[in-house]
Each structure stands twice: as C-alpha cells, then as structure tokens.
Amino acid sequence: MRIMIWGSGALGLLWARRLHNLGADPVLITRTGRQRDRIREEGLIVTDDRGDVHRCSVPVFTPDDRLPRADWVWVMVKQTALDQVREQLNRACGPDSEVWLWQNGWHPQWPFTEGTWYWWNTVTTEGALRESENRVRHTGVGSTWVGSLLSPTGGPELKRLPGLDRWVFPDPHIRDRIWTKLAINCVINPLTAVWGVKNGQLLHCKEFPALAKGLLREAVEAARLQEVCLSFDTLWEQVQAVCRRTALNRSSMLQDVESGKKTEVDFINGAIVRTGNKAGIDFALNREMVERVRDVEGTKGK
Ligand SMILES: NC(=O)C1=CN([C@@H]2O[C@H](COP(=O)(O)OP(=O)(O)OC[C@H]3O[C@@H](n4cnc5c(N)ncnc54)[C@H](OP(=O)(O)O)[C@@H]3O)[C@@H](O)[C@H]2O)C=CC1
Ligand SMILES: CC(C)(CO)C(=O)C(=O)O
C-alpha cells in the first residue's frame, strides 16, 4: 500500500511518521529540492503531543523527480497551492489511484471530477505546527473524517491500511462537516489575523461577540444555499469552545500573515461571499473580512 503525501508541511510531516509507524509505504513530496535534500540527509523529526521527539526516514521527492505510482495520494498543500498540484497529479496517479484532499475551506470547483481517479475530501481536527523544513510539532490530537462530496456511500476502503481506522473515520456527510469547520474558521481565522491576537484572546475583545455572530449568521445562510443545514446556536457554542481549547494557538491565518504568505481567506470567507453572489446575496461581513485580510497579507516580512 503506497501512500504519497503531496505537501511536506505541518500535516504532511505529521502523517508521514504516523503512516511509517503503521507499516505503510509513505512517500513525501516537497515543493523544493532544498527541503527534499534536508529530509533525505537528516530524516524527519516529530515532537509528539507529550513532548517526546521521534526521528524517522521516508522516501522524498519533488514533483519534477521521477515519481513512483501511488495507491492513495494525500494532497496536504494549502488551498492556495491546490490548483497547481491538481495539474501535477498525473505524474503519480495511475488509473486506480485515489486522491484525498485535506484542505480547510471550500474550493470553488469542488467536487473535483477530472482524471480517472476517485476524489475524497477530508476534515481533520488534528493540530500540527511545522518548526523547520524537517521538524513538526503535534500541537493537538484530533480526528479525521473522509468521504465523497458526490455520493454519501462513497469513500476509500480504510481497511486497506490496518490501524488507520484508529484516526480516520468514514463520513457520509462530509459536505456538512466541511461547512461546519468552514463556519468556525470564518470567524476565528480572519479576526485573529486582522487583530493580531491568539485564539483565546478573541473572547476578551469587546467587538468579538457581535462580529462573530454576524459572520456566523451569514455562514449558516451560505451553507443553506449549499444544501447544508447548520445550527447557529451550536456553531456559536463551538466557536467559543474552540477559542478556549486552542487559547494559546496562533490560527493558521495569523501565522500566514506573520510569515508574509498568502492566506486561505479566499477559500473560507471568500467561499461564503461567492456562494452568496451566485444567489444574488451580499454577505457583507464576510466580504469585509476578505478585504481586511487581503490588506494585512504581505505587510509582514518572510
Ligand atoms: N496544520 C494544521 O494543524 C491543520 C491544517 N489543515 C489544513 O491542511 C492544509 C495543509 O495545511 P498545513 O500542513 O498546515 O500547511 P503548510 O503550509 O504547513 O504545508 C503546506 C506544504 O505544501 C507545500 N507545497 C506548496 N505547493 C506545493 C507543490 N506544488 N508541490 C508540493 N508541495 C507544495 C508547501 O511547501 P513550501 O513550504 O515549500 O511552500 C508546504 O510545505 C491546509 O488547507 C490547512 O488549512 C487542517 C487542519 C489542521
Ligand atoms: C480551529 C483553528 C482556528 C485553530 O487554530 C484552525 O483550524 C486554524 O487555525 O486554521
């Protein structure tokens, strides 16, 4: 069973070690030759959730190397790189390959259908932080769900990798789960990025409750347009719970802003705005978040 992890960032490095431990045959893909060579020379180093440090080595390539065929390709790049990777996948996918998409947010062309391969979407509540080219820290133990956006009964055969079912669960309603996470992210991510605060600090900001509830109301309405039924009250509870549980974390959007990278805002708040636009509705608060995050993107050095 060969699983190719396309994208050697936080999630990719975390899962490479986990798959290695499960006895799978993981292969990592890095964007740059520099990261590939570093992982080849030094291995990858994972600090687990208890603070113990583990080292392991796995085969690693760049997309331009000659790639082995993979049974499953786990695409673990940000949404901002997904279109580029999509065009490169035939370098590793055969007719029977299955592609798992691990991104937060909603891509405007989902569900993907190109190629002969199956496309699966996942949602994960794991937390991982990349500390260097070959080092990652497991910051939060969570679970992962996988399913098909096209058919509730579709999904990968998880038994192909014994032990995987400890972390990954089939979900016939993966669209609902994606939109639930997107709704939570549409509040926490832009506000932490724009105000420059950690997740827990949001709860102490005076403007937070009104703004968060306004963003959530729009998210619930957008989800309805995507045929997903979300409960506003449940989401508001979940947002506050995530802020408390991850109080000391810098959201992924804040981290991207701080390191001068493009954020995933177009696929989170932007997905809500686009869904509204198609129905002739202006989701003004989410639109404002897209604009405000774009304003701070690129203002900090790399
Ligand atoms: N980290 C987490 O805890 C969680 C992340 N997610 C989601 O998972 C996705 C991945 O997140 P995360 O791992 O944190 O992101 P990272 O930015 O840490 O990693 C993404 C990796 O993709 C690489 N990459 C970009 N373009 C290519 C390419 N063309 N070919 C190969 N590799 C490429 C980047 O390389 P380079 O650095 O060289 O640009 C980087 O190493 C995101 O959508 C995120 O929202 C979801 C839940 C939790
Ligand atoms: C849940 C949250 C907000 C945790 O930081 C997250 O998913 C992110 O940072 O992208």
How would you portray this structure in words?
The chain has 9 helices and 12 strands. It is of the alpha/beta class. It has 2 domains: 3-172, NAD(P)-binding Rossmann-like Domain (Rossmann fold, 3-Layer(aba) Sandwich), CATH 3.40.50; 176-296, N-(1-d-carboxylethyl)-l-norvaline Dehydrogenase, domain 2, CATH 1.10.1040.10. The strands form 2 sheets. An 8-stranded mixed beta sheet has the order 5-2-1-6-7-8-11-12. A 4-stranded mixed beta sheet has the order 4-3-10-9. Helix 3 (79-88) links the parallel strand 6 (70-75) and strand 7 (93-101). Helix 4 runs antiparallel to helix 5, helix 4 crosses helix 6 and helix 4 (174-195) crosses helix 7 (252-258). It is globular, with a radius of gyration of 19 Å. The model has no long low-confidence stretch (mean pLDDT 96). The structure holds NADPH dihydro-nicotinamide-adenine-dinucleotide phosphate and ketopantoate.
Compose a concise summary of this entry:
It is built from 9 helices and 12 strands. It is an alpha/beta fold and about 300 residues long.
Structural class comes to: alpha/beta
Give the end-to-end Cα distance, rounded to a whole number of Å.
38 Å
What hetero molecules are in the model?
NADPH dihydro-nicotinamide-adenine-dinucleotide phosphate, ketopantoate
Q: Can you say what the CATH homologous superfamily of the largest domain is?
A: NAD(P)-binding Rossmann-like Domain
Helix content: 25-40%
The biggest beta sheet reads:
8 strands, mixed
Order of helices and strands: EHEHEEEEHEEEEEEHHHHHH
Compute the number of strand runs: 12
> Taking Cα atoms only, what radius of gyration do you get, to the nearest Å?
19 Å
Please tell me the CATH architecture of the largest domain by its name.
Answer: 3-Layer(aba) Sandwich
Q: Number of helical segments? A: 9
Strand content: 15-25%
- Tell me, rounded to a whole number, the average pLDDT: 96
Q: The CATH topology of the largest domain, please?
A: Rossmann fold
Low-pLDDT sequence parts: none
Keywords: NADP, Oxidoreductase, Pantothenate biosynthesis
Domain Ketopantoate reductase C-terminal: 174-296
Pathway: Cofactor biosynthesis; (R)-pantothenate biosynthesis; (R)-pantoate from 3-methyl-2-oxobutanoate: step 2/2
Domain Ketopantoate reductase N-terminal: 3-149
